[in-house]
Amino acid sequence: MKIMHDKIAVVTGASSGIGEATAKALSKLGYRLYIGARRLDRLQEVAAACGATALHLDVTDAESVEAFVSALPDGVDILINNAGGALGLERIAEFREADWLAMYQSNVIGLARVTKALYPRLLAAPGGVGHVVNLGSIAGFETYPGGAGYTACKHAVRALSDTMRLEWLGQPIRVTEIDPGFVETEFSLVRFSGDVERAAGVYAGMAPLTAADIADVICWTVTRPAHVNIDLMVVRPLDQARVDKVYRRN
Ligand code: NAP
User: Fold this and answer.
1) 177 lines ligand 1 (CB under 6 A)
2) Catalytic pick from 31, 34, 119, 150?
3) How far apart are CA 151 and CA 141, in angstroms?
């Protein structure tokens, strides 16, 4: 008789945007989900919608990561390293140190911290092969004035993804990086400290990607046969040719 196992997925930053959409999409594929973020009320709403276990998580805090991971099962099939984002748009001559430190803590060190903590569980993936999916960005290989704090972080994510693949060669863990262009989520609202008008201006007159578009791509990468590793996927809106080259209809 075939022994069935639960497929386990962990999504960081699942209280909104891409993380929320990915949790919902993975649950439809039959994964048992553990989701983390700081806003527990929002996270619990997502958990209720997709039968997930909601756990408080601040990836910038080592103790929080430790508590989060200790509540997970011993084996995990998929880790979606999604928590992160941008803060501000100041040029290098005027950058705000607290913003840059916070971006590094969440996008770069937080990603590495969660991955390190889950590594033994990924090696014990119930399905036999673990899979880490890192949310990078087109900011991981393009730059723009005012974007250096964030682009440097996402360039670092590219280095982390490549290094994971090198260090784990011969081990049963796949590593994928997803690099989206503009996705309309709470990303710009967070970047501009809750300024709704400024955030809306980012997507004015163009058709951005949706969080569901990226969730769809993530689901495709994790459902390839176990010997296939999708290294990197760049996904842009049709209206965006470069991070700073956007076609607007008005
Ligand atoms: P979002 O709607 O703002 O979602 C960000 C998520 O990350 C939230 O759930 C937030 O939850 C969580 N988060 C932030 N800091 C965290 C921390 N310290 N600990 C735990 N969770 C944290 O933005 P999004 O667009 O979905 O962003 C998701 C990822 O995609 C990010 O890595 C972002 O850089 C990347 N990305 C976005 C775009 C885009 O255009 N939107 C493009 C390329 C890449 P809490 O605040 O509740 O903790």
Assistant:
1) no
2) 150
3) 8
Ligand 1 nearest-atom number relative to CA 14: 9
User: Going by CATH, does the domain composed of 8-180+211-231 fall within 1.20.1250.20?
Assistant: no
To the query of whether residue 34 is one of the catalytic residues in this protein, the response is no
Tell me the pTM: 0.98
The structural domains of the chain, with segments of one domain joined by +, span 8-180+211-231
Q: How far is the CA of 26 from the centre of ligand 1 (A)?
A: 18
Which of 18, 105, 236 is the best mutation target for the ligand 1 pocket, counting ligand atoms within 8 Å of the beta carbon and taking the most?
18
Q: What is the pLDDT of residues 6-30, one digit of tens each?
A: 899 999 999 999 999 999 999 999 9
pLDDT in tens, 91-115: 999 999 999 999 999 999 999 999 9
Mutate to test the pocket of ligand 1, among 10, 11, 15 (most ligand atoms within 8 A of CB): 15
